[in-house]
Amino acid sequence: MYSITAALLLSSPCVANRIQRDAGGSLLDVEVDTSVDTSVDVRTLVAEPLQTKDGSGGAVDWHFMTPTLSWAGRGDQASYDVVGNHACQSTGRYDESYYATSLCYWHPEIHAGRERTGRYGLQWRGGYGPTEFCGGIQVQSGVCARCSVCHDNSRDRDAQVDSSARDSLEIIPLPDCMKEVAIEADCNHQFEAENPELVAHESQCYAAQRDYNEAVTNFHAVNGTITSSEASISQLMHNLAHGHPQGAHCGASTIQDMRQTVVSSCRSFGVRDHHDNAQMMNLMPSCQMPGSFVKLADGALCEPGTEIMDPQECTRAVTALGLPVNVIEGVNGLGDISPVWPSGCSMQTRAPNEYMRPGVNEYMRFNRGPSGRARRNYSPVCRVAMPDNGSTDATHRRCERCTGQMATLQTAMQESQSAQVELEGWQTRMGEHQQNIGNHMGILAQSYQDLPGRRARKAQMEEMWFPLQQGCQQVTEMATERRSANLMACAPRFYDQSCEKACVEIQRTGDHGCGVVEGSQYGDAFQRGGIEVSCSPPAHSWIMSTAGFSEAEQCERINAEQSSRMTTPAQMSDFLTIPGNGGWFSSDERSFYVLESGNDVRSATLRKFDAALPDGTEQTNAGVILWDAEEVSATQTNGERACFEIKHRYDGRTTSWERRGTTTTYCITRADGGSSRRDAWVSTLQRSLVWRPRVA
Fewer Cβ in 10 A, N or C end of the chain? Predict the structure, then answer.
């Protein structure tokens, strides 16, 4: 029916023709467009197709999604099989371009007294999909809304249905209508007009109780202020009495005496009166008892703990013993160069062939002789304690006295400095405490001044309220009961003017996308489950709940006005064979195909699988997006099979544009239905074509 080639469309040398279709897709007439000059060879100018639908021919008017229902070829679009303004065109991954929405629900301003479900009745049934979309999405009050999701229609190799990471709540504009707060206010005004005496009595009771509660609150407030201020003053006074620093420390005169003692004890070490404390501490001597050294006989070993391991100490030892300071370089058994050592401080290992690195107590040392060859030295120098000879011991005692006096002075100065810091902090806190005491004293004085008046006002209100309390309680209960009964009877009468009704019946004023589904259906040829839309209001009806309506009754009203609309059902499925080209290595290719129908914003697609479903895996770049196709026609038929051809401009999703087009032949064997089945394919595919060449 729609098999129209570029040559036929542009047969006139001077004008281009635009094809108009009616609501059912039938050809109406050819409108002459003289704005385009096609006097040149049109075969070189035909570019990608430009298709446009008016959106009124199907079950859904897609203008709720996009004002322009056109597809001007692939170009730079992120998705090749939907219009540029499609709601899922730029959401998530490429495959997640299938759009589905819940029914439209009213979210009342006033809670109906039961938990809101937060569900929208949009789910994937069967297959490997999630049990529910839009679960737990936050409910906004006082709006008409639907939940929408973008999904991939189970086109992954694992057959798992994926959806965009974020479901969205779409607000639908409503005409002038009444929301719950306005309805409740009107009903209350009506009640007040019909019950003036009861309302007046109720108001008097509320005023009396309000005055009593205010008097009691004010009295307790001033009492609480008095108690709090008195407690704060007591605590602050305690802090002033017991918070002064108690730490002992030396005064300035004592520290000066200690300085004189240090100067007297440390004069021999360079300490003088003009030195300040820091300079004195820097002159503190290091008191160590001197040692003496001995050179053992060849082959002897030093006692443990007397070995000389430091090169500098070794230099001092051999100098003290009058030995030559012959600095040599040793080589250990691992081939490494040891530290530089004087020749007299070598030690023997436990065994002649045992070697250790420097730093170990016992290791082999080598000296280099005149020939440069290493030779062993078995004459170690050892450290021994020097006996007390009087003068050395006196010097050591003077040093210890000096360092002791300096340590005492240093401790005293540190304690004095810490005490000064603590004292300064206390002085600051004391000023703050005194200021806070003054503030609380002022508050306390004012509170005691207010207390008699507050007590008298409380007594006066008690005298007035207590006799009224029981009667007012009965009046309040009666007014509440009657007001509630009036609201239950009154609110439903506003249903016709309500925003809830406008939302439920929104489809009467146009198509707003309620319950629109792109994707598979449960039980169709894909056998992977599908989108299912059911009535599941995310919030209970406030108007209907006042009349005792259940959620089932709420859904009866919704289902009477709204229903789900499946816009891309699977139309046909068969094993189709692509014949080989007759070459040596060519053979027929038999695959399973499913035709997924399109709509005004999505192309129909011939999807290819490597085996029958549900076990087959889709070859996602081997199908045909029928917006790319310009012609479908029946071809050869013989006793074994009947064939048809699809001429299109793209082979699969990603391959490039073909100016001259690509023709693919598909055949159906006699066992699979033969020519009758082939004719059904041709007829169905032709209804899916929207090709209209445009001039470059």
Answer: C
